[in-house]
Amino acid sequence: METFTYFYRSGSPFSQWYPCNFTVDEMSFNCAEQYMMYGKALLFKDEGTARQILRARTPREQKELGRKVSGFNDSEWNAHCRDIVYQGNREKFLQNEELLQLLLNTKGTTLVEASPTDRIWGVGLAENDHRIRSRSTWKGTNWLGEVLTQLRDDLLQE
């Protein structure tokens, strides 16, 4: 039977909004959300917004800027967004030993973003909703949970 590790909100180390510092290609990031929105801007060749995202201090600001990326195309974003999130989280966890240990400690479980409002990155249900206990009753795709579960399994095999 499948076992789940639920997470939600910025207080969880598995959240995109969790504050932590990491560097990629000499660029500094303060959370995985910043990396994701920066990657989104670069994907659509919006250098100005990419620079603004790097300067933005909070995940809320970063996300707002990410919504303003010019040239955005939904199908292209959907084709690349999980790879961007994977790469950002790989660096986040590899460069923060205590967070890496928390991720590795979820071995044998599927990570699930228990967001009642996010049906793409989360499952569209809160952790206390009985429907979250079975994939068949989820309201969302759990992309973030899938990315993190895959990342953890890859790191355990390396």
What can you see in these coordinates?
With 158 residues, the protein is mostly helical. Helices cover 46% and strands 9% of the residues. The chain has 6 helices and 4 strands, in the order E-E-E-H-H-H-H-H-E-H. Helix 1 (32-43) packs antiparallel against helix 4 (74-94) and helix 4 (74-94) crosses helix 6 (143-157). The chain is globular and about 45 Å long. The mean pLDDT is 97.
List descriptors.
single chain, 158 residues, mainly alpha, two-stranded parallel ribbon, two-stranded antiparallel sheet, 46% helix
**SS-based structural class?**
mainly alpha
Mean pLDDT: 97
What's the total number of strands?
4
Name the beta content range. 5-15%
Number of helices: 6
Using the CA coordinates, give the radius of gyration. Answer: 15 Å
Low-confidence stretches: none
CA-CA gap between termini: 26 Å
Order of strands in the sheet with most strands? 1-4
Domain NADAR: 6-155
InterPro entries: NADAR (IPR012816), YbiA-like_sf (IPR037238)
Catalytic activity: 2,5-diamino-6-hydroxy-4-(5-phosphoribosylamino)-pyrimidine + H2O = 2,5,6-triamino-4-hydroxypyrimidine + D-ribose 5-phosphate; 5-amino-6-(5-phospho-D-ribosylamino)uracil + H2O = 5,6-diaminouracil + D-ribose 5-phosphate
Pfam families: NADAR
